[in-house]
Amino acid sequence: MAAKLAVSLDGELVEITIRSLQVTITATLIAALIGLPLGAWLAVSRFPARRYIIALLNALMGLPPVVVGLIVYILLSRAGPFGVLGLLFTPTAMVIAQVIIITPLIASIAHQAMRELWADYRDLLISLNATRMQRIATLVWDGRRTLLTAKLAGFGRGIGEVGAIMIVGGNIDNATRVLTTAIALETGKGDFALALALGFILIGLAVAVNLGIHMLSRTEQGSLW
């Protein structure tokens, strides 16, 4: 029954799936724009507080999503500093919460990858008198396939998020309901067949996106895999 529902292409299921992808892909792209340069900057820079920032990033990788959701809720509520924007219970609020959750993960993984790459490029870039921004750009560009892991990890963390999304999105039908919150709702209602169908779709999306990106980036060819 669950498998039949998953492949039925029901209009509501398609709408929820598309919304899930829109929110998570948007959040992952924004988090990557922040996290990848941050990770590379930490790899090439040396300053007193560097180790503390790296330790903080690693700690934030395990930041409880419900806490993130609560903080974003307070900031976007009518009594909060950004309440005038009217973003609470909208997909934008969900994106903001996911960006906060995903960015430390991407930045930390990127830093680990860029640190190894910097060891290979350091002497060359210094001899060329490259500026810090040029060093960061070079590392990010040449390590783009390695950094793919960081982006995919961020996407995986985002697509499976439920706590923060439920708090700031409200799980509103035809507005902010996504796969994870729909699964939680249907499970609570006792509709396990539909919940399983949504779960199959969620797993399928995660696998399809990962395989699709690997194929497009050609990381599976030759020695690149």
Uncertain spans, ≥5 residues at pLDDT below 50? none
CATH class: Mainly Alpha
User: The CATH topology is what?
Assistant: MetI-like fold
Residue share in β-strands:
under 5%
Any idea what the shape is? globular
Give the mean pLDDT: 84
Radius of gyration: 20 Å
The SSE order reads HHHHHHHHHH
- Number of helical stretches of at least 4 residues: 10
Structural class: mainly alpha
**How many beta-strand elements?**
0
What percent of the residues sit in helical stretches (DSSP H or I)?
Answer: over 70%
Could you give me the name of the CATH homologous superfamily?
Answer: MetI-like
Keywords: Membrane, Transmembrane, Transmembrane helix
Transmembrane segments: 20-44, 56-76, 82-107, 154-172, 192-213
GO biological process, one term: transmembrane transport
Protein name: Tungstate transport system permease protein
Quick recap of the structure?
The protein is an all-alpha fold and 225 residues long.
